[in-house]
Amino acid sequence: MERPRSAALPQAVRDHLGRQLQAAYAGLITTPPPQRLLDLIAQLDGILAGEDSLSAAGFRQSLIEMLPGLRAFAISLTANETRADDLVQETLLKAWAKQEQFVPGTNLKAWLCTILRNQLYTEIRKRKREVEDADGAMAAQMTAPAAQEHGSDLRTVWQHIGRLPALQREALLLVGAQGLTYEAAAEVMGCEVGTVKSRVSRARALLADRLGMVSERALA
């Protein structure tokens, strides 16, 4: 087992790591969603045309706003854009069908990420695949979008993110990339807040080590 070393990471290293993570994730968020997801939103518009529901219209608009981040989260979990888009489509449909269960004023991003993650793990169980990616098999597929600046460096970051244990990777992306609080991430992952903090700490330590940042005193 890798020993957690994040507590010993200098703040400058943690800050630099956070900037690299945000930069790597930004390309996924700014990439336009595929047409089929936009078409799905249009279909929801069509449903609303027969209804006079301001609340439903507001919910649909919120889904549109959350779409880039939701798709980025799906891609980061699956390392496959086609599968990620399937996952997002199922998430949007389930969210639409269950919109009465969402409490206005609460964290919509966390709610959607929970639906997406549950869908993913349901599919994994059905296919009898391993939840943990201990061998880093997806690392070879985990690449940053070509349009990003400094693509080579960011692809390296993504490859190392892909080698993190699955649950640590999820926790790090939810907190460090999606910007969720530890409490919200714990709700998404269905675990204790302390567990999320531990997973994020371990993920940061492993990522910093593999990127050669632990010994970089120039960052201080």
From TrEMBL:
CDD domains: Sigma70_r4. Residues 160-207 form the RNA polymerase sigma factor 70 region 4 type domain. Gene3D superfamilies: 1.10.1740.10, Winged helix-like DNA-binding domain superfamily/Winged helix DNA-binding domain. It comes from the Bacteria. It holds the Pfam family Sigma70_r2. Residues 67-129 form the RNA polymerase sigma-70 region domain. SUPFAM superfamilies: Sigma2 domain of RNA polymerase sigma factors, Sigma3 and sigma4 domains of RNA polymerase sigma factors. Belongs to the sigma-70 factor family. ECF subfamily. Keywords: DNA-binding, Sigma factor, Transcription, Transcription regulation. This is RNA polymerase sigma factor.
